[in-house]
Amino acid sequence: MEYNPPGFRAIWPFAWSNDGVLIGFAAIHQRTNTFSRVPGTLAQDRLRLRAFGREILQTFAHTRSVAGSFLASAERLGIRAVPLLAVYARASGPVPSSELQALIDRLSAQICGYSRPLDGLFLHLSGTMLTDGGVSADAWLLQRLRETVGASLPIAVFLDQVANVDAELVSGATIVAGPQQWPPVDIPVRVADLLERLVTTVEGRIRPVTAVHRVPLLLPLAAQRTDREPLRAIAGHVRELESRSGVVAVTCFGGFPYADVPMAGAAVVVVADRSLTRAEEIAAEVSEHLWARRSELLEPGLNIEQAVHTAMATDQGLAVIAELGDAPEAGGPGEGTTALWALLDLGAEDAALAIVVDPAAVQDAVKAGVGSDVELSVGGKTDRRHGYPIDVRGRVLRISDGTYRRRGPLDSGLIESAGSSVVIEAHGRHHGRFALILTSEPVAANDPGLLQALGVPIEELRCLVLKSAVEYLAAWEPGAVSVLPAATPGITTPDLLFFPYERIPRPIWPLDPL
């Protein structure tokens, strides 16, 4: 399960020259789910990850993250990287405008206060962050930065594959790109390519122009995986187009359907050298290809009972069930109990559920201590759209501070925290026994690092239930395991009819007949 990224050398400190091209790096990243009842925040004590200045080297160097890939690529290119700030918030509701403005002010001061003017700026944004005023936080951030650095400074923006992209967002950037695979296992390559394009722009060898073609598609995250058709073929075509002369970057963004905003939906962004006509032609070609194959994007899924039954009956090794309706990487609170109920009711054995977020239940288990029998009320305490609290009887197996190192292809090497966490041996019907992981913070169950840190024997499991929409596929690839996506209730469900949309562009497929 552990992923060792190729070409990442354990070199410290980084040896950049003091002259040559000077590129600043900054990240302000959050995915906003407008249906979330958990307020978004950029406050320092509530962030998933944060680092300022040279702290970025200590936190991200030699990891497979966007920041780590930027640092490695800068060293390879021999340019001088200027780490400014890296702020990664948990996916939730809109972020306060005041908190965003404070970060923008800090970033602007860092840029203006540096010993010499930057030659370029590399930004990592989600393309889905919204303020509590209902506007695109990413577009607002770029507008404010332009007021600081001026119109001529080249700015490269790396967005998530699920970004909701429109002309306003790209207007503040010189080059916009994102992953061409989802899950984004190609981040190191894509970041390296984008940084190279930024450097050639700084040196005056190219003059980027951008075309954006929006496609009237609202795609659940589970439908955006590029390891199967039709997006596998489209991703391959996009890579071929990008290799052509005069083409700087081509990205097909799937969009973020859990944001009720006018810019929701898929988009194709093409950056070409000097020729807007060429960029428009390629964007139209990819858009038409995507639109023509839209009927292949949605597949009927299993419900959770069917998924658990199938997993328990398999004799083909590990079956991984994705609980799609409560995915923390998309703003799910992580406290949903649909899968927990199914595992208890069906008497699951040789199974594990990662995760259920419940700080109160964690504290009760911690007070009881390892080896103690407990009766806990678990989950469903802040948002009943994901299920109600369930009484769980079991035994406390392990207690942890929740700190773990990521081991899979996504952000490999980063150290994260799920907050105080416990592993409970949950006792279900028919003498069922399975491992229930309770955490205090919502973390995306898209990496085996947390399970390994908590001592869960993954290799002995028959069934593993993960709260994740699609990113889990990076660590648990179909073919190596049986993958069973399950459409559970919640604010990240693939059933888009669940959502009371008011602001998305209409008509849009599949909600409207097109």
Keywords:
single chain; 514 residues; alpha/beta; Rossmann fold; 8-stranded mixed β-sheet; 6-stranded mixed β-sheet; 12 helices; 25% helix; disordered N terminus; MlrC_C; M81 family metallopeptidase; MlrC_N
Task: Write structural notes for this entry.
This protein has 514 residues and is α/β, with parallel strands linked by helices. It has 2 domains: 22-296, Rossmann fold; 304-496, no CATH class. The chain is 25% helix and 23% strand. It has helices spanning 55-60, 66-77, 97-113, 137-149, 167-171, 187-202, 231-242, 276-292, 304-313, 338-345, 359-368, 449-453; strands at 22-29, 49-52, 80-88, 120-124, 155-158, 175-177, 208-215, 247-253, 266-273, 319-323, 349-357, 373-378, 390-400, 403-405, 415-417, 421-427, 433-439, 463-466, 482-486. The strands form 4 sheets. An 8-stranded mixed beta sheet has the order 12-13-16-17-11-18-10-19. It has a 6-stranded mixed beta sheet with strand order 2-3-1-4-5-6, sandwiched between helices. Strand 16 and strand 17 (433-439) form a beta hairpin. Helix 2 crosses helix 6 (187-202), helix 3 (97-113) packs parallel to helix 4 and helix 7 runs antiparallel to helix 8 (276-292). The longest helix is centred in the N-terminal third of the chain and has 17 residues, at 97-113. It is globular. It starts with 21 loop residues before the first strand and ends in a 28-residue tail after the last strand. Mean pLDDT is 94; it is low at 1-18. Residues 23-312 form the Microcystin LR degradation protein MlrC N-terminal domain. Residues 321-503 form the Microcystin LR degradation protein MlrC C-terminal domain.
